[in-house]
User: Fold this.
Amino acid sequence: MLEIMILSFGGQGGVTAARLLAIAALNEGKFAQAIPQFGAERRGALVRSFLRISDNPIRRHSSVKNPDITAVFSEKILNIADVRAKTVVINSKQPKLENEEVYYVDASSIALELGLISAGWPIVNTAMAGAMAKVLGFNFESLKLAIGEIFSGRLAELNVKAAEKAYGGVKRWNA
Amino acid sequence: MKKILTGNYAVAEAVKMARTEFIAAYPITPQTTIVERLAEMVERGELSAEFVRVESEHSALAAVYGASAGGLRAFTATSSHGLLYMYEMCWWVANSRLPVVMALVTRTIGPPWNIHTDHTDLLTLRDSGWILAMSENAQEAFDLTLIGFKVAERIDLPFAVGLDGFQVSHTAEVVDIPEQEEIDRFLPERRRDRPFVIEPGNPITVGGLTTNECAMMLRHDMMRDIEKVGDLVRNSGYIRDYDLVEKYRLEDAEYVVVMMGAWCGDAKDAIDILRDEGVQIGMLRLRFVRPFPAKEIAKIDCKKILVVERDSSIGKGGIIATEVKSVADSPVQSVMAGLGGVDVGVEDFVAMFRRFVEGDLGEWWM
Assistant:
């Protein structure tokens, strides 16, 4: 079983990203569980969302404490939270992290280019979900279907594009 | 068909597939998304039900009471303070023998203000005459909602489906949804030709002044009828097998834990870890609190039992442990943990169970 923590600021879409990846995992024939941080989903505050992916049914419901993978939706989060995990996926142009495996993608630029902006912020959830899907070894189609379940119309199209760009563009740092 | 659904959306889906005819509810976290979803379904025409918006939980259950007494399949949902606000009506519904189904998303009773899970709210219904079920995950919340209607309508008692606030209500996980035709076969329309249903041409009195003996007979009949729930659940004809309890690695267990709710999943993972170390430990999970599975507990043959519960009776201790002790043959130890939604996970259960087996477990709290 893989345990994943998503660190985001409220409003960036961390909870939705966990949900999208859980649906994508189901499309991959796996079991999955997406847990929003409970009770503190405030705009601008640090939000932890959890994701579990497994080949077998997932029974536990407690929070993820020691993630295998941590996704960081903004570099500013590094100033306020410890990022402990073997693997990190970060929204960055140049990640300064010492973790064993660091993957990075400029999700903010992808979102801005596509006009995925809400109240002045780039909404990076689908781009980050794209990068994470790649790191998880998912087929892009599984994520695309998931996006179609949650978004519709033009918004779905734009979000699929964002996810696709990040899926293709995510890179390993110092590999 | 497998879908990723939160526990709350799974309940809403079950209420829709049950072709529920009447819903009244008042929003309260963490229940709100159940009735939000149902309101959307009614608005979109996916569910042909009357959805009545009310100004309080007391009114919500009062409206559901009227609909159910009139023969409709009726549903509401609440949590914690909402349940306490509708508490008087809970007894009206039970003593009027109305087969209402209610989702109870468990939440700590304040103050201090807290929206996280604690089972004490569910257990305030313990003596009322409601059938009380507690699910472990979104799949069970879905299944027990449907089984709830079937059982409630067979014995004319209300049915509460418990699900842990956030841990099940807001956690999205895999739920296997049957076809509508399968549900229709399992749960046909509610029969109106039952006692306790007000029908034109067949007037009855509900809640009138009676003799003392009549009031006593009512409670006697309810006690007798609720004992049929075990057989009804086991033989409900539902697509998955259900029972009042779940037995997990119990057969050769020298040490047995008794628990209910979402954290049982974490406890099962802990049991597997200890089993790998050679510790003979298992679980009897309470899927129902009322009727209390006394026979199943009395049958446990082991060195000792540990009850781990997320509730508290001030001045006595664990509510479930008190009940387990009253019927168990083996010595019973009691631990209250996770009150106020304090996170208790696999590692905590490994440590707790190890100390229990070694005879070194005192109070736990956090």
